[in-house]
Amino acid sequence: MKALVWHGTADIRCDTVPDPTIEDGRDAIIKVTSCAICGSDLHLYDHFMPGMKSGDIMGHETMGEVVEVGRDNKTLKVGDRIVVPFTIICGQCEQCKRGNFSVCERTNRNAKLAEAAFGHTTAGLFGYTHLTGGYAGGQAEYLRVPFADATHIKVPKGIPDEKLLFLSDIFPTGWQAAVQCDIQPEDTVAIWGCGPVGQMAIRSAILLGAKRVIAIDRVPERLTMARAGGAETIDLTEESNVVARLNDMTGGKGPEKCIDSVGMEAHATTSLDAIYDRAKQAVMLESDRPHVLRQMIMACRPAGVLSIPGVYGGLIDKVPFGAAMNKGLTFRMGQTHVNRWSDDLLRRIEEGQIDPSFVITHTVGLEQGPEMYRTFRDKQDGCIKVMIRP
Amino acid sequence: MNRSVNPRARSAHDALARGLGWFSIGLGLAEILAPRALCRALGLPGREALIQAYGVREVATGAAILMSHDPTPWIWGRVAGDALDLATLATGFEGDNPRAGNLALATAAVVGVTLADIACVQGLTGDKRLPPPGTYEYHHRSGFPGGFAAAHGAARDFAVPRDFRIPEPLRPWRDGRPAAVSAPS
Ligand SMILES: NC(=O)c1ccc[n+]([C@@H]2O[C@H](COP(=O)([O-])OP(=O)(O)OC[C@H]3O[C@@H](n4cnc5c(N)ncnc54)[C@H](O)[C@@H]3O)[C@@H](O)[C@H]2O)c1
Ligand SMILES: [Zn+2]
Ligand SMILES: [Zn+2]
């Protein structure tokens, strides 16, 4: 089959690789009908996230049709249409039972590596480094879904892929980012980053009834899309002091809730701390650039909440933790517990409260995948979300 | 694994940046290893320590250019370094320097490299240049089939799970006590 394969920094190719086969009784194989490129894939593309090996198949936002089912899998049958959550879950461990699916205790087959890096293991993830299991990803014609009897979202026929695909990751991720804020009707929610995750977070905060949503980015068409969803915007190319601007917009008090949908590759070329981060990252004294995190801590109203869906991989530096501590801020973060929200979100799509396909700007075949990685990363051609149809 | 489609090649400016990175390292090593010979040739006696320090700067910048996925800020660093070099060379023209000819040649070379650095940084920035506002018509992409008014607060029925609630005292206060929870669970 054809698949998008990682070969090194900024080197992803459309290769021919062996078809996946059932390896365990709980597995299923799906024929991929649609998949997508995620901002998290960019951290691998740019190789800021450690733990990739040449030959790894990319992709963790996938849906398709079940074509083969393992012997012990009693919940799926050939022909079922499923969306595959990016977190692989066993459905039986203590964390899964609590709904903390992204920290499932059993699905990371490289648990030892994760323990060394993070102290404890977290869930296995598709197409996302050997730290999280080194499982082949879904930017391919076929995907083996391990623990498939639990790791799936059944979806009805008759709704197009475009509306359902993002149940795999970015829609529940934006949703959980907003839910982590426990939004109250009088809240102002500030959202850094208007990529796909930020866009979903904006829609989720509006659905959950935030009084105001303020979105921050520097890419004009992403800001336009943010306003389309009901957000006010701050354009970083025009405003260098985000914290002061947020204070102005909120009567000096700051937003109650702040969401970081940017993560470790935050952009900031105009400020001193940006140059400092670049230098440290280049000589490997720091792995992540916490520019947004610093701003959120300074901007947030005392006793407010910081919600962090943006991915960090390792060490950060010069975080004003004194401000965070003394302001009494609450930090909520994590990879998304996708399956915890799927039923509710599927219903909202079916009822027409939201149609997540608004975010797709490019639809291509697998062969154009490598090129689209670059287009998406460099924000060329108005690219916000790439959907791939293998 | 055969039959691969190559990713789009790196741009010409990326290649130029790598060239400048290697150039930085080469020049830097010369400055670190042979400061005396350089100073003699340029008629700048007593500047050996300064030249060595510049060498360290060159090597560090060069390494950073080669290692980072976006060399733009480091090429800016080179432009700043070029300015320093030119200022230092300029001091050599004071009085009558017997090596003024060499110095003029070196100055011309640095000016040339500075122009390359500037071209490179402009090219890299151009590659990444954002489109003018309004290029892409995304203002109809609300994602709300029923319109904004219907969507705003449509999910207030959502029962925030207990483990996602913020602590009671941190909720907004009304009439001297924390406001009631919107939906129980
Ligand atoms: N928690 C999870 O489970 C989960 C799931 C999916 C994605 N993510 C993460 O969410 C983040 C965003 O993903 P995406 O797909 O939207 O990626 P993206 O790269 O398309 O979006 C990031 C956006 O942030 C903007 N940005 C950069 N620096 C900024 C700054 N200093 N201030 C404000 N905005 C800035 C960029 O212009 C871009 O529009 C990534 O870190 C990704 O790894 C997390
Ligand atoms: Zn993702
Ligand atoms: Zn589990």
Write the layout of secondary structure elements.
The complex is a heterodimer of chains A (390) and B (185).
Chain A (H helix, E strand, L loop, with lengths): L1 E7 L2 E6 L11 E10 L1 H7 L10 E2 L3 E9 L11 E4 L2 E2 L5 H5 L12 H8 L5 E2 L16 E4 L7 E2 L6 H4 L5 H10 L8 E5 L3 H12 L4 E6 L2 H9 L3 E4 L6 H8 L7 E4 L11 H11 L8 H9 L5 E4 L12 H6 L3 E4 L4 H13 L11 E3 L4 H9 L8 E3 L2
Chain B lengths: L11 H22 L1 H8 L5 H20 L4 H20 L8 H28 L20 H4 L21 E2 L2 E2 L7
The complex binds nicotinamide-adenine-dinucleotide and zinc ion (2 copies).
Protein name (chain B): Cyclase dehydrase
Protein name (chain A): Glutathione-dependent formaldehyde dehydrogenase
Cofactor (chain A): Zn(2+)
Structure at a glance:
Chain A is of the alpha/beta class and 390 residues long.
- List low-confidence stretches of chain B: 1-9
- The CATH superfamily of the largest domain in chain A turns out to be Medium-chain alcohol dehydrogenases, catalytic domain
Number of domains of chain A: 2
Quaternary status of these chains?
Answer: heterodimer
Largest sheet of chain B: 2 strands, antiparallel
Termini of chain B, distance in Å?
52 Å
Question: Structural class of the helix and strand makeup of chain A?
Answer: alpha/beta
Distance between the termini of chain A: 10 Å
Overall 3D form of chain A: globular
Radius of gyration of chain A: 20 Å
What would you report as the Rg of chain B, rounded to the nearest angstrom?
Answer: 30 Å
Q: What about the largest sheet of chain A?
A: 7 strands, mixed
Shape of chain B: elongated
Hetero groups = nicotinamide-adenine-dinucleotide, zinc ion
Structural class of chain B: mainly alpha
- Work out the strand percent of chain B: under 5%
The proportion of residues in beta strands of chain A is: 15-25%
Biggest sheet, spatial arrangement of strands of chain B: 1-2
Q: Architecture of the largest domain in chain A in CATH?
A: Alpha-Beta Complex
